[in-house]
Amino acid sequence: MTLTALFVAAYFALLAWMLRRRARVVQGPWLFFLRAFFPNWKFFHAVGMAPRLYVRGRDRLGQWTRWHRVYPRVPRRLSHLLHNPAVNLALSHQNLVDHLASDINELPEGADIGQCVSYQLVCRLAHQAITGDHWGGTPMLAVTPAQLPTGLDAFQFQVRMESPKTGAEAAAEAAADDAVQMLLSPELPTWH
After folding, report:
1. How far apart are CA 42 and CA 164, in angstroms?
2. Phi, psi of 76 (to 5 degrees)
3. Using an 8 Å Cβ cutoff, are 182 and 161 in contact?
4. Where are the beta strands (DSSP E) in 50-153?
5. Which phi and psi angles does 55 have, rounded to 5°?
6. Of 27, 75, 98, 158, which has the highest C-beta tally within 10 A?
7. Structural domain boundaries of the chain?
8. What pTM did the predictor assign?
9. Nearest-5° angle of CA 171, CA 163, CA 100?
C-alpha cells in the first residue's frame, strides 16, 4: 500500500514538473494512461455537439445492418447510489469516445488516427458492441436479435458529433441533419 502511494505521488510530481517545464499541454503516448484517472472535462466549455459512437455489421451475404448507437443508457436504480459498476463502465466507454474525438481534432495534418491508442481502444469497444457484449445486464446496443443477426463477418464504426437528445429524439437521431461525421472506420473483421 505504501509503495503504491509512493508511485502515485511520484507520477503526479513528474507531471507537475513537466507542466512547469513545458507548455501547459501534456502530450505523449505514455501520458495517455493518465486519462484513466480523470474524465474528459471539455464538455463544460460549451453546450453543443457531443461525440457519439455508432456501429454496424455485415452478414455473410454482404448485407449491412443499419447503424446502431453505442451509448450508456442503463436504467437507474436506488441501489446504484452505493454500487454502480455497470454504469461506471458504460460512462468510461463514453469518456473514451470523447477522448478519441479530442485526438481527432488535435491530429496533425497527414497523421494516421489508426496509430492513436484512443482509436485502437474505441475499435475494440465497437467490436464488443457489435458482437453483443453487455454493461452488466444491459446490452451495449439497444436492438432486438432480428435487428442484429449473429454470425457477422465484418463491422464498421463511426464517430458522429450530435446535439444531445434523449428519449424519442434519440431514436430519430441517426437520421438527424445536425449530425456531423468525424470518423468512419474501414471494414474490420469480427474475428480476431
Report:
1. 15
2. -85, 145
3. yes
4. 50-58, 68-70, 134-135, 138-139
5. -135, 155
6. 98
7. 2-37, 41-189
8. 0.72
9. 100
Local structure of residue 64 (DSSP, 8 states): B
* SS3 label, residue 175: helix
Q: Which residues make Cβ contacts (< 8 Å) with residue 105, sequence separation at least 6?
A: none
H/E stretch holding 184 reads: strand 180-184
* Amino acid present at 58: R
* E strand or H helix that includes residue 158: strand 154-162
**Alpha-carbon gap, residue 186 to 101, rounded angstroms:** 17
Reported for 71-78, long-range contacts at CB under 8 A and 24+ positions apart, including other chains, are 71/170, 72/135, 73/142, 73/170, 74/135, 74/136, 74/138, 75/138
Per the structure block, which three cell numbers stand in for 31?
Answer: 501520458
Burial of 80 (0-12, 13-18, 19+ CB in 10 A): middle
User: From first to last of its 192 residues, what are the pLDDT tens digits of the chain?
Assistant: 687 888 888 877 877 777 676 555 555 655 656 555 555 555 555 567 889 999 999 998 899 999 999 976 777 778 777 777 888 888 889 889 999 999 999 999 989 999 999 999 999 999 999 988 888 888 888 887 667 777 889 999 999 999 876 544 554 544 555 689 999 999 999 875
